[in-house]
Amino acid sequence: MPRNPNNLSTDLRGVGSLTIDAITGITDMVESLHHTISSFAGMLGAPDQYRTKGVTGMVYRNIRTVTELVGDGIDALLDRFSSMLGEQDSFSGREAVLSALNGVLGDHLVARNNPLAIPMQFRRNGKPLNERSLSQAILKSEGRLAIMVHGSCMNDLLWNWQGHDHGAALARDLGFGPVYLHYNTGLHISENGRKFSDLLETVIEQSPQPIELCIIAHSMGGLVSRSACHYGKISGYTWPDHLRKLVFLGTPHHGAPLEKGGAWIDIILGINPYSAPFSRLGKIRSSGLTDLRYGNVTEDDWKGRDRFDLSGDRRIPAPLPEGVQCYAIAASVGMESDKLSDDLIGDGLVTLDSALGRHKNAELNLLFPKTHQWIGRNMNHMDLLNHPEVYATVKKWLKAYYPESV
Fold this sequence. Notes:
Blueprint: H1 5-39, H2 54-72, H3 74-86, H4 91-111, E1 121-124, E2 127-128, H5 131-140, E3 144-149, E4 160-161, E5 164-165, H6 166-174, E6 177-182, H7 189-206, E7 212-218, H8 220-234, E8 243-249, H9 257-271, H10 276-282, H11 287-291, E9 325-332, H12 339-345, H13 352-355, E10 373-377, H14 388-401
Parallel strand pairs: 3-6, 3-7, 7-8, 8-9, 9-10
Antiparallel strand pairs: 1-2, 1-6, 4-5
């Protein structure tokens, strides 16, 4: 007997509601786990149920907001979301929400030509740098630029973390001109890598004097920077010849555990036909986020493949750029070295092996020299942005190339 159309409509609405609740529930579960990992609490006794704080908490809150938007139709309510952003009292608050939204849905925003999509550009203090202002920055620093590249679901303003900004400190202590990349972290890392490479080539072409570049990249920003080096080389660009140093802060060179966990959730929910609809909307994660599963940096790593398919790590080896001094900083929440904190938890988002580029497959091993590696203990992923020891290490590495600096 055919189903009553009205009942079918009710069922579909019910499934949609359940799906939204399921994604929100998964978000709650993952956030609770993240909070437990970050605080190293809950290892014994009852798990900690408190929600994460700061930028991480903001990201999770916005995933919930985005999930609610899916229930009524993403495109229809993004306009309302845009109006809500316009009502934000704080510019930095609006930027934080917008960057989180791009991190989760950035590829969708671009595909639909949505004005909420973040365009890639260089900025300072949240303001775009035009050719004139960039030239002034180059002249003031005598051609020594420190390019600051933020991580997933973040923005350039968040380099100023709890009163410290690595870029501003390098300007004060070593005379660098800090320039901050702002980009849509929801796009494929290789897409951002190409755009970043194009942008750097434009800087070299328009520079009023010779330039020496150093890149300091946090988290996903390190993958975008490696991708830019790859595409700069195969495009025959000149900017890679101006790159002197590349410093990675907590970069998931070989993937991030939380994204791998998200993929397993897709598989588990897809096994049962009654839970299959949950799986479909669970795949709301952007291309940028799924690239973090193994640390994709080139188009060949994902093109022609189902990005939600757990078929294993099939990346094309992308070694560190030749002729560039590359450095890796990793963090661990543990006070001392042990397998749990180093191999499974790391800084709460990235394990030590991943951050230091170590891999069992020799072709994927990035081979950072021992003297170009540093591990911070009792630190989490966000501490890499402001911890005094992290900055002292970055400063030492950059000063070694510029001994005449104060």
